[in-house]
Every structure is written in C-alpha cells, then in structure tokens.
Amino acid sequence: MIQTIVFLTPHYLNFASEKALQTLGRDCRTVLIAYHADVLPPVLERNVSQIVRVDADLQRNIRPLLDHDQCRSIISDELRAVQGNTSSLRIFCQEECHVELAAQLREEFGLEGDTQAIVANFRDKVLMKHAVSQKGIRIPEFVPLDHVRLSAEPQAYYAELTARLGLPLVLKPVNAAGSFEVSIIRNEAEFNKAREQVLASPYQFDYEVDEFIDGDMFQCDSFVVDGQIRYCGVLELGCTNFDFVQGKPLSVIPVADPALKATLETFNRDVIAALNFRNGSTHHEVFVDRKRGYPVFLEIAARVPGGIGVPYHEKNSDINLIDANLYLVAGAAALDDIKPNEKNNVVSALLPLRKGRISQLNEPPISSAYDIDWRVAPGMVVDSRSLADTAGILTLYNADPKVLRADFEALQDYVPTQVEVLEPGTA
C-alpha cells in the first residue's frame, strides 16, 4: 500500500483537480518539494500534507533545478517515517526539467518508477533518436554539435554541416524544453548568429544539429498502463514551437481524417514500444513529410504535454492526464474511473508574445464562441524566449467541424498583442 507520495516541483501538478488531490490525501501523505520562489496555486496549498522549500540551480535549464542533496534529505526523512518500506513511497514528477532528478532519487533509495536508463532516452534527443531509429522508425538526419569546431573554425564547420544535412539546419539543445535556444539556420549569417548565442549561453547545454523536415506537425499525447496505451489524443499543430517563439499562435485541433489518425496512432505506439515505456504519460511530436506523406519522428517526452495540453484534453476528451497519472502512481481505485470521451469540438491556442511594451490586446478573427485567459496587460514589457513566455490561452468551441477548421486556420495570422519596440536600455 502506498503511504507517501513526494511531488517533485509544483509545475504541471498545478493542473491536478481538487478531487484527485483530495482522493490521494485521504489515503496517503503527500509532500510537495518546491523552490523558495515558486508561487503555489491555492489548490496545492489546500490539499498537500506538507510543503517543503529548497534551494535550486538557476543556470542549468529554463526552470530552477531543485537541489539534489536537499531533495535526497527529504526523501530520506519520509522513508524513515515509513520504517524504510520502499514499496510504500513514490516520487511523482511530470515536469521535463526534473524527470532525471526523480529517476536518480528513485534509484538511490530503491523506489519503484522510471529509472535513469528509461528517462535518459526521453530527455536526451540524441539518445532517443538512436533508440527509435534502431527499430526502423524514420528520424531526421542529425549530428551532435561539435563545440570545439563551432568555436575554432566556424566557416569550415558550417560548410561541412550544410554538405551533410542541407539547408535549413535546425540547432537545438539536446535536453532543454519549450524550444528554448532553438535556431532555424537558412544561411551563414544565421549560423553565425546561432553560434554567438551558443557561445554566450549561461546554460550548460549540449546541442544537436538536425536536418530540416518540411511538413505538418502533429502531437500524440498518451496515457500508458502496463505497456498498453489507454488514451492517445492525436492533434494537428498550427505551427512549431520554434514558430511560436517567433510570434505565431501555437494552436491545436483534433485530427479528423480517420486514415491519418490511425497512421499516427500506429507510429506513436511503435515509438513508445521502442523506448520500452510501461507506465505514465508521453508527449510525442512528429512531422508528416509534405512531399513523401509519411511520419518522421521529432522527439518524445516521458510526461504529460505542457502549456495548453492538459487543459485541452480535459475539455475535448474528458481526461485530466495529471489526475490519471496521480491515480496510477498511487494505485488508486479511481484509476478505473478514467474514461476518455473525445468530442472533437475544441481548438486551443497558446498566444505568443512579441518583444517590447504591450500597447493593445487584440481579439481573434474567428466565428466560433471563445474565451481568452490573458496573462498580460497593456503597459507590460515582455519578451519571447520559450513556450513559458505566453500572452494567454485561447479556447474556442464549435460543433461544426468545417467552421472549427476555418477558425483554426484563421488563427495562423492572428496577432494577439500590439507592442512598441523599445530602444536598447529602455525599461
């Protein structure tokens, strides 16, 4: 029986329902480890047995990384409280930057859950590509970035990369998140700009350089129990994460074409099997090559989708993926109550920021009923570096699939904020 669940960071846990948190709280002790500066939503403040604040490293990823030693001490204390019974304690984490730490702590204490070997294939984009390609799954051609050559001989290195991978090139960290520090390189000038960004970065990233895939982008968000996919939400994206950071709304719509949906579901199942993932959620991004018409693997994470993902699936399919994962980790009987019901009448969009001072918020040019949860206001000075930087969340509803599709396409040209470009040094 599970007696204690330790939540590693409040991020993504904030999507849990009060009902799920209360269900767990009746059966076991719940402990949340959070960074000192994390602002917690009331639903967590009300429904967690204990909240422990720790230090964090601010220079290794886009979110503060909780201090390993302090987290280890907390786990050790909780394990002593259950007389060292490792089968009664679980670590819950659905935040990309901390799944490795969660796996390390599990192995240090002999706890059940994802191991470091499993998690590494979902965190390191080079490892994951090697793993899936060995099972015959199509991937973009790529090479790990050679930092020495990038620094010492950029012109020759650029020529070598383009000869091997063509143009454009995609340069990105192998283990960050949210398109942070991603560059699309179309010429040598853009290569030099990306080089300067890499060399000046305060973060300790390794990078890869990928072939650019010309195609439409999709995501498959899954809930897996004992190796079987119980739910797979297949969505078309209006743009890539990189395009969002450049200023386009990141919108999602359910895939309506039965043949395409079946193809993507099969591809997703094969990727999950190739990575030997048994329990939990995955967030899988895939291109459908525009010329050849087949899926090409982009990347996959061993967690629920970020941004609009969890609320979207709850609205469209009646499944809260955080709740489902909480019930799974706790061994709760409520897991049997998770019954997805796809309605396919919802489009959601993460609204982008544009660097500068906001002068006006704009309404979308659509016909469907909608609501916007604005996260910004006129007068605010904003920037756009990753998916964490957003103007708000748009949700629209329509039972007519043709109108829903037309509005989804109209969002591609929607500019949600007007901004005044600031002079350097202006606050």
UniProtKB/TrEMBL annotation:
Lineage: Bacteria, Pseudomonadati, Pseudomonadota, Gammaproteobacteria, Pseudomonadales
UniProt xrefs under InterPro entries: ATP-dep_AA_Ligase, ATP-grasp, ATP_grasp_subdomain_1
Pfam (any one): ATP-grasp_4
Native source organism of the sequence: Pseudomonas thivervalensis
Keywords for this protein: ATP-binding, Ligase, Nucleotide-binding
Residues forming coiled coils: none
GO molecular function, one term: ATP binding
Name of the protein in question: Biotin carboxylase
Domain ATP-grasp: 129-330
